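Input/output pair, single chain:
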Amino acid sequence: MSSKDGFVARFVSPFDESTVIIEDDGRVAYAYMLGKDEKICSDVWLYNRCPTPVEPEWHDPANLPFANPASFVSQGSRFSFPGSAHDFNVAWDEARGLLVAKVLLRDDHFASLEVGAKPGWSALAAKDGPLALVLR
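Output:
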């Protein structure tokens, strides 16, 4: 699939059967951590490809997956959209006894997922919100 149509990438943990799914549907992109039971145990908004809405979309489930509204999106960075799933990788770690997945975009730390963290952390989050926390 081209980036216009979106893409899906899957990364498997070397520690257990957990996986990270990165899904870009051509409108918005999210990363999801799935546990051994294949249920989502962490998720995070990555970026909007669509025009960033002024008002939040999360009041209507028909808008899933939600685009992050302007007040929660960092406007200062010069972000270049990934061309394909090949621009992503995941670095895995077992920190503090928890499985942590660092989502790398072109080898730069772009997002983090941790078991039980809903939401996770994103480099494009301007402030903590329901879809992403600020990546520090």
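The two ends are 32 Å apart (CA to CA). Residues 7-134 form one domain.
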